[in-house]
């Protein structure tokens, strides 16, 4: 794996951690909506990395996951 692939993977992993219901950033725990928004932003950063590496299948899979998150949140 290249450094860029590792960065993209790490961003994706951080986004998935945000979705974990037991995850709390600080002692006050942010709202569910803000956690989802942060997660989606991290997923989008990961997508941009994968697109720059021309790994479009991985980028597409992450876009699909973002869509599922948005649908399930509503």
Please, could you describe this protein's structure?
This protein is an all-alpha fold. It has one domain (about 5-74). Helix content is about 75%, strand content about 0%. It has three helices and no strands. The relative contact order is 0.17. The model has no long low-confidence stretch (mean pLDDT about 85).
Q: Which key phrases capture this entry?
A:
74 residues, globular, single chain, mainly alpha, 0% strand, 3 helices
Number of helices: 3
What does the largest sheet look like? Answer: none
Poorly predicted parts: none
What are the secondary-structure elements, in order, as H or E? HHH
Count of separate structural domains: 1
Instruction: Give the overall pLDDT as a whole number.
Output: 84
Range of strand content: under 5%
Radius of gyration (Å): 13 Å
Q: Measure the end-to-end span.
A: 36 Å
Query: Looking at the structure, what is the overall shape?
Result: globular
Strand segment count: 0
Q: What percent of residues adopt helix (DSSP H or I)?
A: over 70%
Structural class: mainly alpha
